Every structure is written in C-alpha cells, then in structure tokens.
Inverse folding.
C-alpha cells in the first residue's frame, strides 16, 4: 500500500483535522533507515484501517518538520484530535512498531 504524501500546505487538513489517529513518517529520500521503515509502515497501514498513515519529506516541507522539532529522521509522530500524542525516533521492526502504536488501533 503506497502511503500518501503530505506537505506543509495540506498538513493541517490531512493530519490535524482527521477524525482518525494519523501516523506521520518524517523522512527524506537520502535517508537509508527511512527506506527501511517504509515497507513496515505500508504493511501497518494496509492492516489497520482505523488509523491513517502518511509521510512527509522533511527536505521539501521544512516548515512542518521545524514546527514539530523533527531533528532526526526517521521520526514517526502520532496525531490524535489535532494534537501530537506520540513521537517515535528511528526505525523499528514491524512487531515493535505495532506494539508502540497498538493503543491507536482501537
């Protein structure tokens, strides 16, 4: 499942105004660990329709990355009700990431 790209321009509409929890992958094309995390997030997105999983390229969308103090990538932020509720930095195996996100699968 290909993840939707969000930008500085549509971040508020897609992420902050969503009625579902939104998992945002802050990544960049040159980031090796980001590429490792991509299929993990795609699998989670395909298996858990109760959340939305999107990605944001930090090189092209520096305003949003700066607003949420993303200084290391990959960073996975979870937003619920327009608020940042969880930050996960670095790559994880699928089972470990699912465990960290499990409370949002309800």
């Amino acid at each position: 499942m290909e993840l939707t790209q969000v930008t500085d321009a549509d971040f508020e509409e897609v992420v902050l105004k969503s009625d579902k929890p939104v998992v945002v992958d802050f990544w960049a094309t040159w980031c090796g660990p980001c590429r490792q995390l991509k299929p993990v997030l795609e699998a989670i997105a395909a298996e858990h329709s109760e959340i939305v999983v999107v990605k944001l390229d930090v090189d092209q969308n520096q305003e949003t990355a700066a607003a949420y103090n993303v200084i290391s990538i990959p960073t996975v932020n979870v937003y619920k009700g327009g608020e940042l509720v969880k930050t996960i930095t670095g790559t994880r195996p699928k089972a470990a990431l699912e465990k960290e996100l499990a409370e949002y699968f309800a």
Summary: The mean pLDDT is 97.
